[in-house]
Amino acid sequence: MADPRAAAPLRPPSPVRTWFDHHGYSLVASLGRVFERPWAALLTMAVMALSLALPLGLALVLGNLERLAGNVERSREITVFLRQDVEDARAVALAGELEANAAVAAVRHVTPAQGLESLRVDPSLAGVIDAVGDDNPLPHALVVAPAGDELALAGWLRELPEADLVQHDAQWRQRLDTWLRFGTRVAWVLAALFGLGVLLVVGNTVRLDIQSRRGEIGVLQLLGATDGFIRRPFLYLGAWYGLGAGGLAAALLAVAGAALAGPLAELAASYGSRFALTGIDLQWTLSVLAGATALGWLGAGLVTGHFLRQTRPSGT
């Protein structure tokens, strides 16, 4: 008697299982094609990495400059020089009134004696100050730290009856902000141009691989293979190139940052600052890898789609 299990027909795998199996095969097979020509693949990834590193490096520099500008809080301080006839008691009372204002974060009162001592620290001015003697020509000064818009606060302080001169060096900050906005726009333009270059490089590389497998693709088309089935290995090939290029670009920027971090820290320390380069972290690296992989996938998809449209047999 025959075994009933032997007579049972084999059920074909489900379409979903077949889809996942082909994706896995395409992923591994495309990686194998990369390793078949390691030096050519490395050269292609290096060219793509340089194209990615330039706009990314500019974006990192602009981000650090913006952070540096935001950390220079003293540039927001407003110095109010009071009139010579303002007495000590009125200067102290005015400082208290300003500190109670919601637009003011803090107020520091600098007496004429304190102002003279701060000038005496400069050796070039020590002789001049000694020549002045007991006749101190400096007025009371109030150093105001704004809580919000320093420009509006500076305009209001100029209207005070006791104010003789209001010093607020905000022009350089406005110019720096303008340059940073311009630099950001330049970074986006460069990112678009170099991103297009990455698409062309990966597209040309995948095109060469397609040409080498032209006969195999023709057979698959005659057997009724869908465009998605044929395109899938090349999409993963482009993604591998993009992933490798993204990793190389992140590594290049990390090395450049490490080379510049030491000298920059010494320069910042000479100005009494603890500023240090930032930007190369895990989240940033993962974003670079994801973006580069997407560019490789897109470039391969564009080239493969164009090829399939040109070679698809008529009537199918």
Automatic annotation (TrEMBL):
<keyword id="KW-0131">Cell cycle</keyword>
<comment type="similarity">
    <text>Belongs to the ABC-4 integral membrane protein family. FtsX subfamily.</text>
</comment>
<dbReference type="InterPro" id="IPR004513">
    <property type="entry name" value="FtsX"/>
</dbReference>
<dbReference type="InterPro" id="IPR047590">
    <property type="entry name" value="FtsX_proteobact-type"/>
</dbReference>
<keyword id="KW-1003">Cell membrane</keyword>
<feature type="domain" description="ABC3 transporter permease C-terminal">
    <location>
        <begin position="189"/>
        <end position="303"/>
    </location>
</feature>
<dbReference type="GO" id="GO:0005886">
    <property type="term" value="C:plasma membrane"/>
</dbReference>
<feature type="transmembrane region" description="Helical">
    <location>
        <begin position="186"/>
        <end position="206"/>
    </location>
</feature>
<feature type="transmembrane region" description="Helical">
    <location>
        <begin position="39"/>
        <end position="62"/>
    </location>
</feature>
<keyword id="KW-0132">Cell division</keyword>
<dbReference type="Pfam" id="PF02687">
    <property type="entry name" value="FtsX"/>
</dbReference>
<dbReference type="InterPro" id="IPR003838">
    <property type="entry name" value="ABC3_permease_C"/>
</dbReference>
<feature type="transmembrane region" description="Helical">
    <location>
        <begin position="284"/>
        <end position="308"/>
    </location>
</feature>
<keyword id="KW-0997">Cell inner membrane</keyword>
<keyword id="KW-1133">Transmembrane helix</keyword>
<dbReference type="InterPro" id="IPR040690">
    <property type="entry name" value="FtsX_ECD"/>
</dbReference>
<dbReference type="Pfam" id="PF18075">
    <property type="entry name" value="FtsX_ECD"/>
</dbReference>
<keyword id="KW-0812">Transmembrane</keyword>
<comment type="function">
    <text>Part of the ABC transporter FtsEX involved in cellular division.</text>
</comment>
<protein>
    <recommendedName>
        <fullName>Cell division protein FtsX</fullName>
    </recommendedName>
</protein>
<feature type="transmembrane region" description="Helical">
    <location>
        <begin position="239"/>
        <end position="264"/>
    </location>
</feature>
<feature type="domain" description="FtsX extracellular">
    <location>
        <begin position="77"/>
        <end position="148"/>
    </location>
</feature>
<dbReference type="GO" id="GO:0032153">
    <property type="term" value="C:cell division site"/>
</dbReference>
<comment type="subunit">
    <text>Forms a membrane-associated complex with FtsE.</text>
</comment>
<dbReference type="GO" id="GO:0051301">
    <property type="term" value="P:cell division"/>
</dbReference>
<keyword id="KW-0472">Membrane</keyword>
